[in-house]
Amino acid sequence: MASSFSLRKLFFLAGIGMLLFIVVMKTVMLPLRSGEIVSFELAKDVDKASRIMTAWSIDPAGMIDKVHTAIRLDFIFIVLYSVFFFLGTRFMGNLAGTPVLQKAGRGFSWIILLAGI
Asked: Helix count (H) and strand count (E) of the chain?
């Protein structure tokens, strides 16, 4: 039960840390919106991506610098997100109390880390 308590504590701390990181990231990225980054990431062809990058480059507010920072911060977010779900999967598996679900929680937690990588 003690390990379950510490796992629960880590899970909630990771969740709070992830939420705080999202708030900080959105604040740092202003005036850039997450939808603008997503439209660039989902551009289907080079021409569309080039148009988006050109618009950012000519922006006097230094939007292209914000984009570079946002992409770097996205990698940190992936780590936080993966750790949060790794801990959550283990915590929920332990809450179930049955050996099968505990084992499934441990197995899926490693799959989540691999997906994050």
From this structure: 5, 0
CA angle in degrees (0–180, nearest 5) for 34-40-44: 140
Residue pair 90/112 in contact (Cβ under 8 Å)? The answer is no
More confident residue, 56 or 18: 18
Based on its alpha-carbon atoms, the radius of gyration of the chain, rounded to whole angstroms, reads 19
| Residues 70/29, Cβ–Cβ less than 8 Å | yes
pLDDT tens digits for 22-53? 999 888 888 887 788 888 888 888 999 898 88
**Cis upstream peptide for 31 (omega within 30°):** yes
User: Tokens for 83?
Assistant: 């750790």
Cα–Cα distance measured from residue 74 to residue 80, given in angstroms and rounded to the nearest whole number: 10
Q: Position 8: which residue type? A: R
Q: Are the C-beta atoms of 29 and 66 separated by less than 8 Å? A: yes
Element (H, E) at 21: helix 2-29
| Phi and psi at residue 44, to the nearest 5° | -80, -20
